[in-house]
Amino acid sequence: MIVCRIICLLFCPSLALAQAPPTPTEPSPPNAAPPAVHSDSAPSARKPIFVGRGVSVRVSAGYAYTSLDMPSSGRMNLSGPDATVTTDLSPRFGASVDLSYVRASNVLDTGRHADVLSYLAGPVFYPFRTSKLTMYVHGLGGGARVTGVVPVGGGEFERGYANKVSWAVGGGVEYQVSASVSFRGGGDYQHTSFFNSELAVRGQNDIRIMGSVVYTLWQHPERRR
Fold this sequence. Notes:
mainly beta; Porin; eight-stranded antiparallel β-barrel
């Protein structure tokens, strides 16, 4: 027993030293804050307004008033529907097809009517355009069938029609109320033909005024706002 105690006394300090916890190391410094990120880039500039190019197709329907210069009976007022189809090839240029039918009843108290059926087509130019307002001028050519009565003397009248070449020049303005709808108003000088009192076909100088609603059927994606 004495020998065992001596052995324990000799070796216990070594064991205690061996089992002692290690000395604490210096605490690690707290994590440094991440460096601040400074954006030196300039603010994004506004995108420029793009004037779109590409084909757009528009149709219009409205009403037309025509002052018809009949060679045989003077001025006559006619009115009726008017329709157009316009294809815009660029912001400044397009092509249009115009169809109108105007009519007057009881011409010269004969109980007969007079009418003009016009079918015209031609180029359209847009000299002035803003986001809402557009000005246009056009030159149209085609034909017109004019029907009416011709006084031949002695209180007698002949009824007939002349389907001849016709042309028109004029212009107007459009006001856009939405992406697809706009209002149009315009006027034309139109040349047509009809019989005079000698039953010879003569040219006549007509004035027509139109008002219509325009609807965009299709518009190139680059021209959509």
